[in-house]
Structure formats: structure tokens, C-alpha cells
Amino acid sequence: MRDTRESRLLLVLLVAIAFALITVDIRGGEDSPVDGARRGAATVFGPIEDGMSAAVDPVGNAVSAIRDSGERHDRLAGLEKENAALKAKLGSDDRNRSRLTQLDKMLKLGGAGQYGIKGAEVIAIGAAQGFSWTVTIDVGANDGIKRDMTVLNGDGLVGRVTTVGPDTATVLLANDPDFTVGTRMEASDELGFASGQGDRPLRVELLNSKAEIKKGDRLVTFGSQSDKPFVPGVPVGVVSRVDPSGGGLTRILYVTPYVSFTKLDVVGVVVQAPKKDPRDTVLPAKPKPTPTPTVTVTVTPSANAQVDGQTQPEQ
């Protein structure tokens, strides 16, 4: 068809009729005058649409499969995440049980010594260089912590506070070479000074060079004036070796500390000293000695026993 004036008018007329039919159909709804024609068209073209749908179903199914696969992957990832969280929770529970045990032990020690304790957690260790043995705890000035307060745990003396920040504090451990604490021997009350030696036993100088000391004897802190930096009665350790007395003014002992300084976790800062020196009452109960089994040997004379140097024959 050539582009003439008549053809353009016909095209405009057809477009106008189409818009009019669309308007009538929309306004008429189910009673639309063109509803019958639409149904007829559906009858004619429906099978063709079904065939087209069947032709494209594999593609649709593939897309659905990919979507379902993604959902399954997400579910699997979610389950793996839940399992990881469960494992972490179990590990956390084990750790919490350990911490509760440590805390309970520390509170019992605090109760025995009548110490007012602020519980804390070790969150960092000091640099290994320079033989410095320090840890950082998660309490500070905002928690009432001050410099030169005694730090302990459920086993005994940990150290003393040296630096205090708003929410953290640094503790110098009792095994640091710059650490010194006054000590008192259990029962005998012999006084001395214990110094740290890193990963070796504490070195203790007793003021009495002739004191009767033996392996297994125990020590506690003597205490300081105004209870700073040390409160009295905190368990220090057990004598592991005694140097022979050489006629000096002091006597040297080597003491294995109660506290394991490489396994610190829950500790307590003594914020209130006891009204009375607990002396030896905070020390743990002494282990009961293991009985040594005795062996009885019975000698049975042989048949050819000697009498007066002569062998007697069997009867």
C-alpha cells in the first residue's frame, strides 16, 4: 500500500476504533460487549499458547532449578553456620565452666581471708622482652582500682597493680625479677623476702640464717603498711629447696609458687583489706601422706641346713 492521504486517514480511524473498544471493554468488565469475541479468540489461540508454554517449560524449569539450588545452598550454609555457632557455644560453655570454677575457688579464698575482691579477667600479657612479666586486666579506675593493690586468684598471690587506666590496669606478676614481697613461714612465723626469677622458683631470703626450714614448708604474704601493696595471709608457695646455711646473715630458700603464671585467666584485685591478719588460715589443706607399703620377709630353713658348721642330711 502506498503512503497516500486515504491510507493515513484509514490508519487513524482504525487506531481510534481500537481505543474505543479498549475503553468499552474496561468499563464493561464481565458484561463487556467484546467479551464473546475475546473468548472466541482464546478458543482459537489457546492451544497455540499451550504449545508455546510447553516449548519454553524446560527453560523455566531450569531457572526454577537454579533458584531452588541457590535456596538449598543458602539452607546448607545456614546449617553449617548454626553448627559452627553450636560448636562455639559448647566451647564457650566449657570455658565458662572453667571460669566459674576459678571464680568459685577465688571467692572461697577471699572469704577465708576476709578480703574484699573485685573480680577481673586477664585480657593481655606484657612484652616478653626484658624479662618483664606483666598482664593487663579489664578493670580500672572506674571500678575503684588503684595503684599498689594486691592481685590474687584461687591459688594464691598473683602480683600487684602498677598502672591504672580508666577501664584497665597493669599487674606486675610475682615471678617478675623486679617483684619483691614480704613473707611469713607457716607455723614458725619466720620472716623473709621473696623475689621473682621468671620461670624459675621464687628466691626467698629469710632474716634468720639459723631458722629450721625443710622442703614442703609453706609461705604466705607478711603484709605491708596500710596493706599496700600487699595484704597479709595470701598463699605464696611451697619450699622446694633450702640452701645450706653458710654462716651468712640470711638463709636462702627456693619456693615453688602456688600460682601458674602462664595460665592466668580469672583474677581478683583486693580492694578492701581484712580487718584482722588471717595468718595461715587461707593456706590450702595439706595433702595427706601416702602410706608406704611394708614388706614382711619370712625365712624358711632349707632341708640341708648347717648346724655348727656341718651339713645335716634330710631326715
Q: Average pLDDT value?
A: 78
The helical percent reads 25-40%
If strands are numbered along the chain, what order do they take across the biggest sheet? Answer: 1-2-5-4-3-12
Helix-strand string:
HHEEEEEEEEEEEEEE
Number of strands: 14
Q: Globular, elongated, flat, extended or rod-shaped: what is the shape?
A: elongated
- In terms of DSSP E residues, the strand content is 25-35%
Structural Rg: 45 Å
Intertermini distance = 153 Å
For the largest beta-sheet, the strand count, sense and barrel status come to:
6 strands, antiparallel, barrel
Question: Runs with pLDDT <50, length 5+?
Answer: 41-60, 62-69
Structural class: alpha+beta
Number of helices: 2
Relevant terms:
315 residues, 33% helix, 14 strands, alpha+beta, 6-stranded antiparallel beta barrel
Layout: helices, strands, pairs:
Layout: H1 5-28, H2 35-113, E1 116-125, E2 134-137, E3 150-152, E4 157-164, E5 169-173, E6 180-185, E7 191-197, E8 200-206, E9 218-221, E10 235-242, E11 251-257, E12 266-272, E13 306-307, E14 310-311
Antiparallel strand pairs: 1-2, 1-12, 2-5, 3-4, 3-12, 4-5, 6-7, 6-9, 7-8, 8-11, 9-10, 10-11, 13-14
What would your notes on this structure say?
This protein is 33% helix and 25% strand. The protein is an alpha+beta fold and 315 residues long. The strands form three sheets. Strands 1-2-5-4-3-12 form a six-stranded antiparallel beta barrel. It has a six-stranded antiparallel beta barrel with strand order 6-7-8-11-10-9. Strands 13-14 form a two-stranded antiparallel ribbon. The protein is elongated, with a radius of gyration of 45 Å.
